[in-house]
Predict the structure.
Amino acid sequence: MTLTAKKLWIRIGIAAALLVVVMAVCVAIGSVSVSLVGALRGPMRDGQPNMDYEIIVHYRLPRIVLAAIIGAALAAAGCVFQAILRNPLADPYILGISSGAGLGTLAAVLLGWSWTFLGMSAMMLTAFAGALVTTWLVWGIGRAAGRTNITGLLLAGVVVNAFFSSVIMFLTSIARADQVQTTMFWLMGSISELQRPDVIAASGLLAAAGIVVLLRLGPSLNLLSFGADEAAALGLSVSKTCLAAFAVAALITSLAVCLGGLVGFVGLIVPHAVRLVAGPDHRQLIPISALVGAAFVVLADTVARVVVAPAMLPVGVVTALVGGPFFLILLVRCTKNLHWGAK
Amino acid sequence: MTLIDVKKVSFAYGRRAVLKGLALSVRQNDFLAIVGPNGSGKTTLLNLLAGLLRPRSGRILVEGKPIQRYRRAELAAVMAMVRQSTMPTFGFTVRQTVLMARYMAGGKLFETQQDYEIVDRALEMTDTQRFAERPLTALSGGERQRVFIARALAQQTPVLLLDEPTSHLDLKHQIRIFELLKALRRDEGKTIIVVSHDINLIQHYAESYLLLAADGRTEYRDEETGLDAATIESFFEVSGVEGTLAGRRVFVPTGVGEKQSGQ
């Protein structure tokens, strides 16, 4: 039952292998059929550009890698928010990130900004900025409300979210139809066609670094599950740990939002699904959730690009449509392993 | 040697004063019982001693050093606390819960073989090893209470603070826990500070007593003076009879004292 380094590495290995298989399968699926083996021959074949290579390396792979980064970041952040807020209903967007990012996006659309920076659109970057500023605001208000009071933080998040949402509603009601369309599609989560390999690699490194930091905080998060006072009595410096966990989780969530809009449900259900199967220890929960979350979003995005091809569904729609029923099945079947809080 | 020195400590929740100018010194290897009616500040005092609350005024010294100068992990190496019923948000098992006592000891990601041995011993001492692999949520209140006592033991601190550790326990385990505390004090030189409502149990086991009244009065008694009926009646606002049974002092409350105001 108890977790050792060896057990953890084995489980991470299994989950990573699963992710690689999912990614390999999804690369081969699409509106145009391509051959993975063909792509391995390199960019040129018989003096002609190799189409298999072209499609896989320049279109499918970047998108699949982005989907994996988004899924990993959201699932890991979900674990952390559920732990520090001691609330199984918490998701990465709970503290105002969604509305902040939404407002940022809408601002870029309404202002007609169409510049790009490092291959990222104005919309992505304003979303990132909006998400960070809002979480900082929520944290500030929550701290002012009570120094170690989790409820204060949660309420601040809910109210800021509601307030910004109404600002978004107001702005959409005065915006033009095409502007609204762009924003809505983005808000439902859609993985962008970012094709700069260096930017993708940087995003991946940032997300991976964030997840490793959160994994190192795993024991502290276990202590926090018993409440701030208990954790403090066991020797944890509660406010420092909360701030670190919160900041890193908010950062990788903002990164995910910047790359793919509001992909819902991943951060809520993946941690729960993993917890049901593998138990609540955060040292294991965080890395396994990240890998499972990555595989889940890769799959969902593949469905989103194939199902109504050549059109595309917002990936957020797929994650909710697939994830919801799947989670309910798991909930009913694994109820015996389910022990959240009071009976 | 004085281990914990409480100097003129006052505390209030908002405007409601709970402790006023409390002075107390706890010797090393003492077995101190804190007794008093609900709302007299017993738990507040424990939280102050554990550094979880800051006094409004006054100072608390632990081993001669002001408590606020300790880092949390340092303090957790000096004292462990058993609080009244707490439940985790997620379904940790008994063993996982007790292992958490070892987290801050080394600042490492995984527990060592030595940690496992310490935890096994703590589980055994509290008679909880039978359900070590069960989740906390699947236990009764009394079983859970013993798990938290096990966790405090696994912290291996010289001081144990316990807030009503036997409130949910059956008779056998009440005795077992107090016998365990007595043995820890005797064999390992631990200092025990316990809040309890069980007057007869603590009269038998404790070495000194701190009485707190709802109106802010306090009184300290050592083993010689003990707790007499008049004092208990005055602090708890009850009337009762005292006597000696098999060489033990007992107090049986029989009615509510005339000092009771209102209701």
